Amino acid sequence: MTNTTVTLQVHRFAPRPERDRGSSPFARTSSPFGSSGERRRRPRGKQWVQEYTLEARPEDTVLDCLLTIKRTIDPTLAFRYSCGHGMCGSDAASVNGTPTLLCTATLKDWAKPCVPGSATDDEGFRSTGEPGAGTVSATEHSETGGRNLGVIELAALPGFPVQRDLIADIDPMLEQIKKLKPFLQADGVLATTKGGKVDVFEYLQHPDELARYEQLSNCIACGVCEGSCPVFAGGDAFIGPAALISASRFINDSRDSAAQARLDAIDTADGVPACQSVRACTRECPRGIDVGEEMWQIVAKVRER
Ligand code: SF4
Ligand code: FES
């Protein structure tokens, strides 16, 4: 048992049930996100802010708290995670308005001094006092009454349609990455012998050549850089920094033979020329990639051709 608590203010979203959407004669699709052409539209549903106060230690992560809420307070709260330690990128969300990973955001770093009754609807979110939809406290059931570490505001990753609560639909980013062929294209790597067997051979690489893309290969496609980028905002006008980082990783790989085709593929209206060099993408990359600097270099490579 701890003697400290934290309050999470969660911007929640529940999509309209399937049967309600289907009943409209104007409904163009049964998906909450529409067909692929409509994917980036904001899905319709109920939005509100819900506060949870629970016992937690300063070194706990936001993900630890969400798991406690899910297991002991409110099983309806939806969020996504997998590895739990900054390796998979599946739990990117907005923490106090900043895109970051829930599993690496600690309370001591993110909790802000508590302002009582601060769950508002400034963003159009509805804060209700209904049972199960307003403030829910785990400490009501404890005898501790300890110090409150502060408040942390949570919302789904910006720049993407929200699916439910803290879960964003990151398919637009994954589609953009896939479009740029995120795999090695090396001539002759699968040559066959006369007997029809795959003739595998080594591609030797100097450490200097590896250093040119090694850091970029650490990208986990979490979408934090896209959520931070004011130009990306759904990916309609700009394919986004994550897709360009993925392209750059192979452009810089001495084993890859498709660099020119890759540069052509990103020299489009929604590619490199759409980057406004805001550099917001660099600030919170959980893998330590200097995304803004890399974007700068890829812009220079495209221009120099
Ligand atoms: S570059 Fe960094 S912030 Fe962007 S998707 Fe990759 S790991 Fe996430
Ligand atoms: S859960 Fe995998 S990065 Fe956070």
UniProtKB/TrEMBL annotation:
Superkingdom in the source lineage: Bacteria
SUPFAM superfamilies linked: 2Fe-2S ferredoxin-like, alpha-helical ferredoxin
Residue ranges, annotated region (Disordered): 1-45, 118-144
A Pfam family reported for this protein in Swiss-Prot or TrEMBL: Fer4_8
Cofactor: [4Fe-4S] cluster; [3Fe-4S] cluster; [2Fe-2S] cluster
Gene3D superfamilies linked to this entry: 3.10.20.30, Alpha-helical ferredoxin
Keyword annotations of the record: 2Fe-2S, 3Fe-4S, 4Fe-4S, Iron, Iron-sulfur, Metal-binding, Oxidoreductase, Tricarboxylic acid cycle
EC number, as in UniProt: 1.3.5.1
Domain (4Fe-4S ferredoxin-type): residue spans on this chain: 209-233
Family listed: Belongs to the succinate dehydrogenase/fumarate reductase iron-sulfur protein family.
Name this protein carries in UniProt: succinate dehydrogenase
Organism: Bifidobacterium panos
